[in-house]
Each structure stands twice: as structure tokens, then as C-alpha cells.
Write a structure and sequence with these properties.
- By secondary structure, the protein is α+β, with helices and mostly antiparallel strands.
- It contains four helices and 13 strands.
- Strands 1, 2, 5, 6, 11, 12 and 13 form a seven-stranded mixed sheet that branches. It has a four-stranded antiparallel sheet with strand order 4-3-7-8. The protein has a two-stranded antiparallel sheet with strand order 9-10.
- It is elongated and about 80 Å long.
- The termini are far apart.
Length: 253
């Protein structure tokens, strides 16, 4: 007859085997869910200034400040195994050394949590909600009009107009003015509850029912040049409007 310790070991081994198999099934099950993300990103304006991009910068150098419009639908990347989605926008431009690959710099990023991540359902939360149910105010009991609630977009829907960048662009050479063929690109990283991380699938490619992103890249543009007298040029682009050049005073930090 088996001892108590042997029985505990058998139960624990069976439990870990079931949990491991379940995790594999969940991780592989998302491959049958179709994914068709799309994004549209446009340049709103770009400004190149010379100064200290950060308060701890040791020297003055050129850095770019890029504003953009983003309209993205990444809802198909969310499923029952998605914990959160990490989205970013990079500015890609040719390296000053022709033999080197293009340079990339992140100008904006965000973490989008799934509904299960925002309101996780655990035994503790279920017990707390059961023991502490939401209270109904006297005003609600009398039938007063409820307050208007703000409409929240579904996880994965991004609508940004004339958005400011979170990060400024600097180059190792310290020069960015007159840089040509610059593009803005949208990328993402899906972080699941279990399984491997998945990254951006380029347009025109795919894997099974997972399609590459539709769009997600802006038209190429050029960085403005710095003026000799210390006044910068700012290239402004609007939707459906011709390009124009505006003057902007230098920002020195």
C-alpha cells in the first residue's frame, strides 16, 4: 500500500501534467483565430532643432520632434490568450554610412491591456464582489437620470489626431537636418497569458490565418534644414492639404 507522501507526489505529478497539456492546447488554439490588423499613419508636422534633447545631455545636438495622426484597428490581435499588446511607432531613415542598415528610433509607444487583464477574475475578486456588492444610492433608487458615461474604444482601436511624440529623435552623429526618405512605421508585440510572444507581421506576408498588417507605414518625407540665423523650418502636412513651410523658433533645453 502506498504511503501518504507517495500519494501526494502522484497527485501533484498528475496536476502538473494536466496544467502543462492545457497550457499547450491554449497556446496552439489561437493559431486558428484569424488576424487582420490594419493601420493608417500620416505625418502632421516635423521640426528639427538644435539644443540639449534631455536635461542630462552632455552637449548640444540636433533632434527631431514629430507629430502624427494614427488610425489603427488591432482588435483582431486580442483573443482569450492575449494578456496585453505593446504598440510602438518608429521613425526609419537611411544611415549616414551607406554600408550600415537604416536607423530606427521609437517616437511613441503604448501598452493596451485586454479586458481580462483590466478586470481579472480570480477567487479573491469573486469573493470580494460577493461579500461587498456595489451599493445603490438613494438617488438611483428614486429613478433619477443616470450620468452620461464616456464611450470607451474597444481594446486595439487607436485614434490619435495631431499627437505629440513621447520621445524625440536623436542620431549618433548628432545631425538630423536635411535627412531624406524618412518613414513612420507601426509595430506591435502580443504578450499572451501562456505561449510564445508574437511580433509584427509585415504587409504582404502571413502565417496561416494570420495576415500581415494592412498599411502601417507613412509616406516618405524629408527632415527640414536648420537655418544659419538660428531659426528652424517646420514642415507641416495636413490631410488633403498641400505641404507648407512654417517658421519656428529654436527650442533650447
Amino acid at each position: 500500500m502506498h504511503s501518504a507522501l507517495v500519494r501526494v507526489q502522484n497527485v501533484f505529478g498528475f496536476f502538473t501534467t494536466v496544467a502543462f497539456v492545457t497550457a499547450i492546447v491554449v497556446a496552439l488554439s489561437v493559431t486558428v483565430i484569424p488576424q487582420a490588423p490594419s493601420a493608417s499613419i500620416d505625418l502632421r508636422n516635423v521640426q528639427v532643432v538644435k539644443g540639449r534633447p534631455h536635461y542630462h545631455a552632455p552637449k548640444r545636438e540636433e533632434y527631431a520632434h514629430i507629430k502624427f495622426d494614427l488610425d489603427a484597428d488591432l482588435t483582431s490581435l486580442f483573443n482569450w490568450n492575449t494578456k496585453q499588446l505593446f504598440v510602438w511607432i518608429t521613425a526609419t531613415y537611411p544611415s549616414r554610412i551607406t554600408s550600415e542598415p537604416p536607423s530606427q528610433a521609437v517616437i511613441w509607444d503604448a501598452i493596451i491591456s485586454s479586458e481580462s487583464q483590466k478586470t481579472p477574475s480570480t477567487p479573491f475578486t469573486v469573493y470580494s464582489n460577493f461579500m461587498n456588492p456595489p451599493k445603490v444610492s438613494n438617488r438611483a433608487k428614486k429613478g433619477s437620470k443616470p450620468k452620461k458615461q464616456s464611450i470607451e474604444l474597444a481594446p486595439g482601436l487607436l485614434q490619435l489626431k495631431n499627437s505629440k511624440p513621447k520621445y524625440q529623435i536623436t542620431d549618433i552623429s548628432g545631425q538630423l537636418s536635411s535627412t531624406t526618405n524618412v518613414t513612420l512605421e507601426v509595430g506591435w508585440n502580443v504578450q499572451p497569458w501562456v505561449g510564445a510572444l508574437t511580433w509584427t507581421i509585415e504587409e504582404g506576408t502571413g502565417w496561416g490565418r494570420w495576415k500581415g498588417i494592412k498599411g502601417g507605414r507613412s509616406k516618405a518625407f524629408d527632415m527640414p534644414a536648420l537655418k544659419v540665423k538660428g531659426v528652424n523650418q517646420e514642415v507641416v502636412k495636413g490631410s488633403g492639404k498641400p505641404e507648407k513651410v512654417a517658421e519656428a523658433s529654436p527650442i533650447v533645453k
